[in-house]
Amino acid sequence: MGYGRGVSTSTPDPGPAPEREPGPRVIPRQDPRAQWVVTLAVVVAAIVTVRPVDTSGRGLAVAALIVVNSVALLARHVPDARFPPRAALVWLTLGVVAAAALIGVGRSGSTYLFAYFLVGHIGYRLPLKQALSIAAASSLLCGGVLYFRLGPGHEELPWALGLTIGAPVVAGILSRSRQRAVEAMISSAESAERAARAEARTAVLTERGRIARDVHDVLAHSLAGINMQLELADALLDTGDLGKVREANDKAHSMVKESLKQAQWTVYALREDALPLLDSLTAMVESSGHRDALTVTGTVRELSAQVTQNLLRIAQEALTNAARHAPGADARVELTFDAASTTLRILNGPAVGEVTAGVGSGMGLIGMRERVALLGGTMTAGPVTEGPDQGGWLVEAVIPG
């Protein structure tokens, strides 16, 4: 015997997402068609079997009560949203009273079916305390009606049958608990799905940031340097100094080759191929014009592809900045392997040649700090204020592990 509502409601997924959201989810409930069949069967059985039915006197009262009970039973198919809690309490309470009255005035037939099904729906629709209270009152009311109308020990319809009217409330409560459990499981699954989509979006954004830093490191600096040399060559053409023009042109060609090499490193890094840290760092330092400037201390060990890639990008950024802002200055690169960390230091002295005024993208130091933060390390960058390199610049990145 089913006491659940025969309608389905849906819970929309409120989580924002750039991709198309799935449609509304239908909460599985008992088959509404089966619920309607049961309700209509009860109504038809009452119309056919309950007597007397007439247009006057007691028969008229029975007919009116059959209509009232049928309407009260059909109302259980109305969604919760249409019935506020207080209205539902009043409706079901009056419905039980009408069912008890029908038992009292009807002489035969299935008068008690309305009471059974209404009490069952009370267990489904109302809070636990209210449901149990009304169910107990229904048992006492229907039992009292049968007792005073038929007397104790009546063989056809004993008065004790009325005391069982409240029993279906248990089925209604169990049906509601099962429904709430299903809704909770679906809600939990939807929350997990939204969390998974949010995590995927975060991973995508993180990867985009990483690619953006690599593109900046490779293209922005390389193209800026090449453009600078080409502009210098163009300016020297007016002086007629072909030697210096050729020198600037050769430097631009050299930077193009270096840019191609750095782009290849970036492609390898994006594919998460393992890069040889020492060999790559040595080639990078030498190509920047600082031979024998790399110092390695500690026991060399293999680092992860992610750490290697980011250390190389930090070194590339720092050396490029040194060439731009301190032309002609000496630069030293120190790589230190400690037991608990790996430290990369790039130190350059003050500018020796003329510094060409220009506006940077502002992303260099930000990109380096982001790289170090992703690895859980620390970074310091700033001018050197004392010692033989006073007036220069120091970048130091410490990566744990």
Keywords:
single chain, 401 residues, alpha+beta, 5-stranded mixed β-sheet, two-stranded antiparallel sheet, 10 helices, 59% helix, disordered N terminus
Question: How would you portray this structure in words?
Answer:
- This protein is of the alpha+beta class and 401 residues long.
- Helix content is 59%, strand content 9%.
- The chain contains 10 helices and 7 strands.
- The strands form 2 sheets. Strands 3-4-5-7-6 form a 5-stranded mixed sheet, with helices on one face. A two-stranded antiparallel sheet has the order 1-2.
- α2 packs antiparallel against α3, α4 packs antiparallel against α5 and α9 runs antiparallel to α10.
- The longest helix has 70 residues.
- The two termini are 66 Å apart.
- The N terminus is likely disordered.
How are the secondary structure elements laid out?
Blueprint: E1 10-11, E2 25-26, H1 32-49, H2 57-74, H3 85-105, H4 112-125, H5 128-150, H6 168-237, H7 242-270, H8 277-287, E3 294-298, H9 305-325, E4 331-337, E5 341-348, H10 364-374, E6 378-383, E7 393-400
Parallel strand pairs: 3-4
Antiparallel strand pairs: 1-2, 4-5, 5-7, 6-7
Helix pairs in contact: 1-2, 2-3, 3-4, 3-5, 4-5, 4-6, 6-7, 6-9, 8-9, 9-10
Which residue ranges are poorly predicted, with pLDDT under 50 across at least 5 consecutive positions? 1-24, 357-361
The percent of residues in helical segments reads 55-70%
* Main sheet strand line-up: 3-4-5-7-6
Give the DSSP E fraction (strand runs of 2 or more residues): 5-15%
Number of helical segments with 4 or more residues: 10
Q: How would you describe the shape?
A: rod-shaped
Kindly provide the radius of gyration, computed on alpha-carbon positions and rounded to a whole number of angstroms.
42 Å
Number of strands: 7
How far apart the termini lie comes to: 66 Å
- Major β-sheet profile: 5 strands, mixed
Order of helices and strands: EEHHHHHHHHEHEEHEE
* Mean pLDDT metric: 81
- Secondary structure class reads alpha+beta
